[in-house]
Structure formats: C-alpha cells, structure tokens
Design brief:
binds zinc ion; elongated; about 575 residues; TIM Barrel; Double Stranded RNA Binding Domain; alpha/beta
C-alpha cells in the first residue's frame, strides 16, 4: 500500500472513530440494537483488521442498461459517498466518452477524502485518459480466462502476460496506487491467474482485484481462489473482491472473499451493474457492520439516505423486499410477527432500522405507525395497537366488528391503508348498537349493465318488537339509484322518506377504493337525519348509509316521541 492511499484511508479511519466505537458498543451492550446469530463468532477472527470499500456505482453501476448519470448527479453522489465514508470511488472510465472524462475530472477535483480512481484497459490511450482526468489512482484490467483471450482479445497467454508487464509498469510510472484486475478471474486457470497477478505486482500494482466477472463462482470456491492468491502475493498488496450477481451470490461470495484474506470489497448501490448487477453496498456494508462487527470507515447511519439518492438518480426503483432498504424490510403483517415485534422488535428484526438511517426507531408508536401493516394476516393484538395509535376507541363488540370487516376487506384487496382502517372504525363506532336497530338489510340484488338497472331489496323491520320482512323492487338511472329507491320503497308504509342529499367519495385511490357515502333523509314530518357508511362496493356503502339514517330516524321516533334525532341548527339553539 502506498503512502498516498494509506494517508487517505487513515484520515477516514480517524474521521469515523466514533462510529466504530459505537458499533462495538452496540453489538455487545444489553440494549440489543442488533441481535444476530452468536455463531458468527466462528468466522469473526478470520476478518482483516480493516475492510475498505471500493464503490463502482458510477462505473460498473452505470453500465446497467438504461442507467446514465449526469455529471451533476455524479458530483452529488460522489459527495454523499464521501460523507458515507467510502474509501475508494471508481468515478468512471474516462476513455469511454467526453461526458465520462469530464465527470471523472470534476469528481477528482472535489477534494474528497476518498481516493478517486478511473478504469483503463491495458493501453496507452486508456491509461492516458485517466492521467489527463487528474485522477488520484488508476485501475487497469485485462481478461485472463482462456475463453476471453481466445474469443474476445484474440491473444495468447504469453501476449497477455507481456501486456500486463508493459502497461502496469506504464501506469505505475504515473501513479503510486495501481489496482490490477484479471477480468474473468474466476474462470481463469488458477496457475495462470496467479502468474498474471504476480506479474502485475512485479510491474508495480499495489492492489490486486479478483473479479467474478460473470458471477459464476460459489462462496467456498471463491474463498479458495482468494486464499491461493493471498499465499503468494506480498502482504502489503491488498486483495480486492468484485462479484457479480448472476446466480444471486454476489454478496455471499464477497463476504467469503473477505473471510479469506481480501481487504477491499467492490460494491454498487442497490447492487446495480452489468446484467444481474454487483454485490450491493447496502448488504455488504450492513453485514460487515451488524453480523461481523468489522472495522471499517463507513458511517452506517448514512446508508439509507445514500441508497435513496442513488435510487432517485438511477431511476431504478428499490424492490419492496430489498434487504434493509426495501419498503418491506421492516414491516410486519402476520399476527404472530406483529404481536412479537410490538413487544420486542428484535424478535423479528435483526437490528434497529434507525442504525442504518432507515426512518424508524424502536419506539412503540413508531413501530405501530410505520411497521405494522394491516391485512388479512393481521392479528387482534396488532389491530388493537394500530387502533390505539390512530386514536380510535371502541367497545369490545365494535372491535370484533372492525376486525371482521377488516378481514373481509383484506380478502378482497391487498393494500389496506390507515385511512381505510379509520373509515371502517368510524363507520362501526358511529352506528347504533344492534339492539337499537329497527331496520336490517337481508338481501340486495342489483341488475345492471346493458339492461335498465333494477334493484330488489329485502329488509327486516322491527315493529312493536317483532321483525317483519319487506321486499320491494325499483328501477333507477344506475345501480346506486335503483338500490336506494328500492330500500326507500320497502319503507313506504312506515313513512314517506325523501332522500335530500347524497355524497360519495373514495377513501383511497384505485378501483378497489373504499367508498364513503353520506346521506341526508327527511320523513313526512320534516324530521331530518343523516347517515354514513363505508364499503368497498359503492352500492353497498350507499344502501348502508340510507339504512343507518333510517335506523337513526326510527330511534328518534321511539326515543323522542316523534321528534327529530338531528334537529336543524336553528332548533338546537336555546330559545330565548
Ligand atoms: Zn464488474
């Protein structure tokens, strides 16, 4: 390692001393901000003293189809990487385009703590473009597998070794820090890989990267390759790992490499990169922090914020199930999980999300409002906690009804928002108790479509303590109109009811939205009452709103000897 890089890495190390101390304190304190398998102790001793992060979001990551960062975006990302404590930033491959060259140059001039380097093939033009972009260090590469030599480069192994010797030496004549990559290393004959890497070191390379370019290795096989390189390379030469995710093993392979002698890990944010991408920074960094307790310069609290920045600029949406940063990474729906998490979040969450900057603490209110989702697997404990958090108080009977209606709704649609729950709860708690009801809907059939909308309603009405059945039909301009008219008709012998006002609104977006209906009815005595109802079917919410109003009307007749339940504002004022 040259003094140039060492000084940069040491300054990072000093800068983040507090973070590292905090990490250890958290791991072994009783606070249990992190709770991981204790058996990781078996591998902790194999870790290097310090793990360095080499981020290639702006180079390998930008090679993702349809991802292209503007220079301004790259500058913002680089600055945030510096705050995060990334040790080495691969800013681009300056020979690729004028834009890449300019971005590399401007990032190099930002005066970051991180080492800023550029990628170059083993050619004068490529290497000179890195030099011309004023970069701090250089990363050079050539493919070494027989497949790439024969079918891509049309070179012999001897020519490849000669090229490494020549061009690494040329790069070294301009740079203290030269990182060499044998592209497709994991599919390269091991003896030839060792020869290529040794040649690079002899020509001046200070870091040797061992890329799993096509993501075709496994943790144990990769560990073996790293160990073999570690055995023959001088101890001051750092080994880097660069893993692709073609089989979903990029993170596991990277960690296996670090357990086997590698000290530098190449990552990209969100795991973006060629094909299935690279090892994700989030997963590697959080694993090293929380699982291994490794020494590193990363300010882990900046993790989430940085991922969101890259999400915004790359235009690649973070999948909901993405580890640590996805929408579902710290959410729970099933009754068993939610109940346990409310009591102790470590039961089903390995760490306090706040530690990585995820916007949620371990406070109960925070857990309930942000991490407990309501759906068909919701249990009564989490529903109670959610209702408490939403400020809904209800009787046991009302709670049971809310719970049942919630399950009904969850069977029909996937997403249930807090506002849906509030609407159902308001609907239930705003109703008359069952024993106070006079009108109950038994059945409603609505025919609509190309025919004239026709509705047949069957209701039960309690008159003088006995329930009587009423059936009537009506046509209307639409299904709601027909249904409401049929209900009012079944009621005609009890009173001539007029619908004064009708309003409906959707609680949440989409065709599955809950419809909230408000109605106002008036009987022949001029008594006015209102009714409200919520249902995912607008015909049902309309009918229920009318029935709720009818029940209130009937109760007022019984209770007030024919006077209104809801008097007009003028009448409710004291008579002076
Ligand atoms: Zn790559």
């Amino acid at each position: 390692m040259t003094s140039h890089l060492r000084s940069k890495l040491c300054s990072n190390r000093a800068k983040n001393q507090g973070v590292k101390r905090c990490n250890k304190a958290i791991l072994f304190s009783d606070k249990k901000d992190i709770y991981v398998s204790p058996h990781i102790d078996l591998v902790r001793s194999k870790l290097p003293e310090h793990v360095y992060f080499f981020d290639t979001t702006m180079r390998d990551g930008e090679q993702t189809p349809e991802v292209s960062f503007t220079i301004d975006e790259k500058l913002k990302i680089a600055q945030q990487f510096d705050v995060l404590g990334i040790d080495i930033i691969e800013a681009g491959m300056p020979v690729v385009s004028k834009g890449d060259f300019e971005a590399c140059k401007q990032i190099s001039h930002l005066g970051l703590n991180a080492q800023v380097l550029g990628l170059a093939r083993l050619s004068q033009k490529d290497i000179d473009s890195v030099i011309d972009a004023d970069m701090n260090a250089i990363h050079v590469f050539i493919a070494t597998s027989d497949l790439h030599l024969r079918d891509k480069l049309h070179m012999t192994r001897e020519q490849c070794i000669e090229s490494i010797s020549t061009w690494v030496a040329y790069a070294k004549s301009h740079y203290d820090v030269v990182e060499f990559s044998a592209e497709d290393a994991t599919r390269t004959d091991l003896d030839f890989l060792l020869q290529a890497n040794t040649t690079a070191v002899e020509a001046g390379a200070t870091r040797i990267n061992i890329p799993d370019t096509v993501g075709t290795t496994t943790p144990k096989a990769y560990a073996y390759i790293i160990e073999k390189n570690r055995e023959i390379l001088p101890p001051e030469v750092k080994i880097c790992v660069h893993c692709h995710n073609d089989f979903g093993l990029a993170v596991a392979n990277s960690l296996a490499g670090i357990e086997s002698g590698a000290e530098v890990v190449h990552t990209t944010f969100l795991g973006i990169g060629e094909r299935a991408g690279n090892a994700s920074f989030e997963q590697v960094a959080a694993s090293l922090y929380a699982l291994y307790g490794a020494e590193m310069s990363i300010n882990i609290k900046e993790l989430y914020k940085t991922s969101k920045l890259v999400e915004r600029f790359s235009n690649i949406r973070i999948p909901v199930q993405f580890p640590l940063i996805g929408k579902n990474a710290f959410r729970h729906e099933s009754g068993i999980h939610a109940h346990a998490v409310i009591q102790n979040p470590r039961t089903y969450e390995p760490l306090t999300p706040e530690l990585i900057g995820y916007p949620r603490t371990d406070e109960l209110a925070d857990i309930v409002s942000q991490s407990i989702t309501i759906g068909k697997h919701t249990g009564s404990h989490s529903l109670k906690a959610k209702l408490d958090e939403l400020g809904v108080s209800c009787t046991e009977e009302q709670f049971t009804e809310i719970f049942e209606r919630l399950k009904d709704l969850a069977d029909k649609r996937k997403n249930i928002a807090d506002i849906d729950l509030i609407s159902i709860a308001n609907d239930v708690t705003g109703h008359l108790a069952q024993e106070d009801k006079t009108v109950i809907l038994d059945e409603l059939t609505v025919l609509t479509g190309s025919v004239t909308p026709t509705a047949t309603a069957t209701i039960r009405v309690r008159l003088n303590g006995d329930w009587e059945k009423r059936v009537d039909s009506s046509i209307g301009v639409g299904p709601v109109d027909a249904a409401v008219k049929s209900i009012l008709k079944t009621f005609k012998e009890i009173g001539n009811i007029e619908l004064l006002e009708y309003e409906i609104e959707a609680v949440t977006g989409g065709t599955e939205a809950l419809g909230v209906t408000s109605v106002k009815i008036r009987d022949e005595n001029g008594v006015t009452v209102s009714g409200h109802a919520v249902h995912e079917d607008i015909v049902m919410s309309s009918v229920q709103a009318v029935l709720n109003a009818l029940n209130k009307l009937m109760k007022s007749r019984k209770g007030n000897d024919g006077h209104e339940a809801e008097t007009t504002p003028e009448r409710s004022r004291p008579q002076l």
